[in-house]
Each structure stands twice: as structure tokens, then as C-alpha cells.
Amino acid sequence: MSEKCKQVEESHVPLICGLPDDLVLLCLARVPRRFHHILRSVSRRWRALLSSDEWHSCRQLNNLEEAWIYILCRDMSGENIIYVLDPDPERRSLKCLQPMPPACIKNRGMSFEVLGKKLYLLGGCNWHKDFSDDVYFYDSSAEKWMEAAAMPTARCYFLSATLDDKIYVRSVQGSNSGPEGWDIYDLRTDRWSSLSDSMPTVDFEKSITFEDKIYTFHKTWYDSRHARMYDPSSRKWEHLQNEFVSCRCGPTVALDGTLYMLDETSGTRLMMWQKETEDWAPLGRLAEQLTKPPCHLVAIGRRIFIIGRMLHTVVVDVDKAAKVGGMLVTSSFEPKLGGVRGLEVLGCKTIAI
């Protein structure tokens, strides 16, 4: 009871004595994101403020949001590590997100997704456990790991995608004995639901989300490649016959409604999907000594970040690239990793606060 009374008393104490809370919010919202951990340590009210929707809305409405890149990696010892990269050209600082949940450190075959301000690690397997139904998330506002509702089916090396504050997961042939169909996690309720269908997800290579639909890419035993599109609104699958199937050639990212792909089949070329002609158009070629495939793509503003082995990063300004043909003009950097070697990038996501 005394603890509750203390919290009630603190809720009536102004954020800064002598100033209305609305004005304090406008002032604190202008503090750069790299200093937010200091603001959280001032008081419980300040910590609660930085985790609130009011705080995020204020930064968003005043164009103060800063996007950081979260990079899931595996080191030479087989342990998983998550690095956080501040992509600001003046800093480009890198830090290790520690500690990870112990159950995830040695896992392989995990899914890596983002919903809102939360980073999720789902499923996986290791020497001690064939398949896992565990779901952990990192709350980037509170800067701490927590456990979410477990998946209905234990999974490893499975398909996953995010749409409308939901995570869609589905088995891949041979990954486990789970049912055909989707398990769907709802961020708002922290609950899972299941949706069955008759479409088998076989010979899976990759999946992407684009224009509120989920695309899956497959390779058959006789080397024929094909793709399927799932529309959650109609709950129907559609086979794709056009050049969109070529999306399997490399990592992709959507930027302002346009899909970009890094073609890694012969050197590295940045390609752009053209809806009118249903074809891929080359935006430009990148210097082979800069990119270190296999790469992953994320977009911030009008820039595409191409992140390869050892976190070597190439930055492409899409607007500038569209004006210059041939070799793309880029900037690049390689963060200092403090002696870490053989780092493999497993996935990249962005979270803006």
C-alpha cells in the first residue's frame, strides 16, 4: 500500500518544478535520442514519460523522430548478438544490445521482426531443444527485454512477416510437424490466433512484405523458381508469373511505396521494381570492394543502408542515385567492433523514436 501511495504522490509532482507538464514535454522531446537513457534515470515520472504514447506522438508530430538500426548477428563462437547503430553521419555510433535473453543466445533459425517500438525474437532451436515456442521482445522505449505470449506451435527456420501490428508465422516444409496455415500474433492483445488454409509452403527460399501483402519465394527440386502472394484481407493465395519472381536474387527493402532489391547474382546492382512494366530496372551498380555479401537492406528517410559482413555499410541516397547512371555514388563505413571477428549478419530492422 505504501508503494502505491508513493506512486500516486509522484504522479502529482510536476516533471520540472515551476513549469507546466505540456511545456516540459515539448522541451524534453527535443533531446537527442542518444541521451534518452540519461532522462530515464532522473525519476520514475520521467521514465514513464519516455515509455508513453504521448512522448512518441510529440516527437513524431514535431518531426523529431530518430531511426536506429538493429542488427542481429552471429559471431564465430555461434552466439547471437544484437548491435544498435545510430546512422547519423556525424556519429555512426555502434553499441551492443546486452544482455540478450539467455534462451536466445545460442538459438538458430529464429525469426527477427519489429512491431512498433518492439523488437521480437521468435522460436529457434539449439543443441538442447529441437524447436522452441518462446517469444521475447525488446522494448526500445523502456530499454529492457520481456517475454511475450508463446507461439501455439514450436518452430525453427520458419516463415514470418509483419502487417498491421501483427506477426504472421508459418511452418516451412521439414522444419516441424506444425499444421498448415498461419499463426498470428496481435501486438495489442499479446495473443496468438490460428488460421488454416490448404496452401503448402514448400521449398521456401525467402519472404517479403510489400503493399500489405506477403510474398513467398520457392525453389523446386528441378531448379524451377516461383513465387506466391498472400492477401490477408481476402485470406487468399495467388501464384505469380511475372518478373517479380526475380526478387529472390537478393535482399529487398520498400521505400515510399517502391520496392528496391540488391541483385547479388553478378556483382552487386541496386534494382527498382516498376509496376507499370512489371519489371526490374537497374538503378546503378555498386563497387565490388564496398559491398560484402551476403547483405541486408534497411531504409531511413530517402537513404538505403546496405549492411554486409562485419557490419560494413554502404549508404545510397535514392534521389541522387536516380540522377546519375552507371556506377552509384555512395558513402560507406565499417564500425569498430573491438576485435570481434567473423561476424555474420542475420537480419536488420529499424525502430524510430
Automatic annotation (TrEMBL):
Gene3D superfamilies reported for this sequence: Kelch-type beta propeller (2.120.10.80)
Q: Where is the F-box domain?
A: 19-58
- This protein's UniProt keywords: Kelch repeat, Repeat
- Read off the SMART domains from this record: FBOX, Kelch
Name the domain of life: Eukaryota
Query: What is this protein called in UniProt?
Result: F-box/kelch-repeat protein SKIP4-like
- Which organism is the protein's source? Iris pallida
